[in-house]
Amino acid sequence: MYQITLKMARLNKGLTLKEAAKIGGITPRTLSKYEKDSGKAKFDPFMRLVKAYGVSINQIAIGKENEIMASLIENINKVVA
C-alpha cells in the first residue's frame, strides 16, 4: 500500500490550506508546517484532518514531505521500469 503526504490528502479532498486549517482547529501557518513535516503534527488536529480528508491514518506517510516524495518517486520508478 502506498502512502500519501498530508498535503496530498488535503489537495485530493479539494480543500485550501485555510479551509483545512479551520477544520483542524489550527492556523494555516501551523498546517503548512505539519504538511512539510507531519511528524511534528499534534495528535488531535492531525486526527481531525485525517477524518476530514476521508483517509485512514495508515494512508498518511509520517515524516518530512521532501523525503516522503523522494521515496514515492523511487517506488514509482521501480514499478514502471
From TrEMBL:
Protein source organism: Paenibacillus vini
Gene3D superfamilies reported in the protein's UniProt record: lambda repressor-like DNA-binding domains
Transmembrane segments: none
HTH cro/C1-type domain boundaries: 6-60
Pfam families xref list: HTH_3 (PF01381)
PROSITE patterns tied to this protein: HTH_CROC1
SMART domains: HTH_XRE (SM00530)
SUPFAM superfamilies per the UniProt record, alphabetical: lambda repressor-like DNA-binding domains
InterPro entries xrefs: Cro/C1-type_HTH (IPR001387), Lambda_DNA-bd_dom_sf (IPR010982)
Protein name according to UniProt: HTH cro/C1-type domain-containing protein
